[in-house]
Amino acid sequence: MAAYQQAIDAIGKASHGESIYASAGISIKLSALHARYCRAQYERVMSELYPRLLTLTLQARHYDIGINIDAEKADRLEISLDLLEKFCFEPQLAGWDGIGFVIQAYPKRCPYVIDEIIDLAQRSQHRLMIRLVKGADWDSEIKRAQIDGLEGYPVYSRKIYTDVSYLACAHKLLSVPNLIYPQFATHNAHTLATIYYMAGENYYPGQYEFQCLHGMGEGLYQQVVGSIAEGKLNRPCRIYAPVGSHQTLLTYLVRRLLENGANTSFVNQIADPNIPLDKLVADPVQQVLAAAETTGQLGLPRTQIPLPRALYGSNRLNAIGIDFTNEHHLAGTGVDPTDYPTLLSG
Which domain, by its residues, includes 122? Predict the structure, then answer.
């Protein structure tokens, strides 16, 4: 909490009264503010975490800088949306457009989440800052679903589907400029170029922005932020930079290495001279359609990754778990998630 307060003060003083879209902002990781940030502790989250988040946001509003609620694991998505809704109807934040939210494109619920957020923006009369990312915790989301014995996976099993989802979600965000300020975080040249043309050539300040990780994608974004006269795209790019000690940033670094070190990562592939340019900038939609012609069905999951129930093949079925973050499952089982610790001890 203290570190975030110091950071907001530093960013706010350096902004020199610039607009929300022109000045630097901050992204808040809610699990860093509360050790019990989960559905099973819903009442504590609302009574203990929300006031801390509100305090930081009022501080950001004082300086008129944007503040984003960062995305975390899929099992925290619904409670984060509840916090966002409470936030948007907070009287002390009325009329302010610095409220932000980060959405990951690899969960299958992503397009529906965006629909919900657009509706929330309209109801609350806020223009929300929405940072769209592809997602960096794919491995752990797959493993968590297997351990919990869920019906399926919360994320796509093929990266190509995430790429398509990202573009579809980008289109949704760009379609409501009065309600959403889109922030597109990507290092993929094809994704960036598609969004550029999707948004149209008549750009105006505050329409949207790109984002990149500090120290990554610099060659790509050098072609983005320069002037038209220089042959560039003349679009803004915000640099997303994690701040902290070596110890606190180590897990972040590992996630980035896993994400960008994967064989399917654009950052990995662009450094490989053996990969032809046509493959690097291939249209993911066309790739999915081509795969459907081969398999005979659109959108088939990766066969090498069995569903959580079929994890052990023909030997035996995996145990069925209860998804304590799914309200429909909880309603069907009659389980109260606030009794989760009791259930474990029993």
Answer: 2-301
Determine contact, residues 169/105, Cβ cutoff 8 Å. yes
Q: Residue 135 domain-assigned?
A: yes
Q: Give the tokens for residue 210.
A: 């790109």
Write the CATH number for 67.
3.20.20.220
Question: How do residues 260-288 score in pLDDT, each as one tens digit?
Answer: 666 566 566 666 777 777 777 789 999 99
Residue 316 within any structural domain of the chain: no
Please give the biggest Cα pair distance in the chain.
Answer: 70
Those residues with Cβ within 8 angstroms of residue 342's Cβ, 6 or more apart along the chain or in another chain: none
User: Which pTM value belongs to this model?
Assistant: 0.90
The single-letter DSSP state of residue 261 is: H
Whether 169 contacts 110, CB under 8 Å: yes
**DSSP states of 118-158:** HHHHHHHT--EEEEEE--S-HHHHHHHHHHHT-SS-SB-SS
Which residue, among 160, 144, 155, 162, has the nearest Cα to 308 in the 3D structure?
Answer: 144
d(CA 113, CA 119): 10
* 321 within a domain of the structure (yes/no): no
pLDDT digits (tens, 9 = 90+) for 18-63: 999 999 999 999 999 999 999 889 999 999 999 999 999 999 999 9
Laid out side by side, the sheet with 26-28 consists of 26-28, 67-69, 99-104, 128-133, 180-185, 209-213, 237-240
Question: Residue 215: what are its φ and ψ, rounded to 5°?
Answer: 85, 5
**Looking at the domain assignment, is residue 315 inside a domain?**
no
Q: How many domains does the chain contain in total? A: 1
The stretches in the chain having pLDDT less than 50 are 342-346
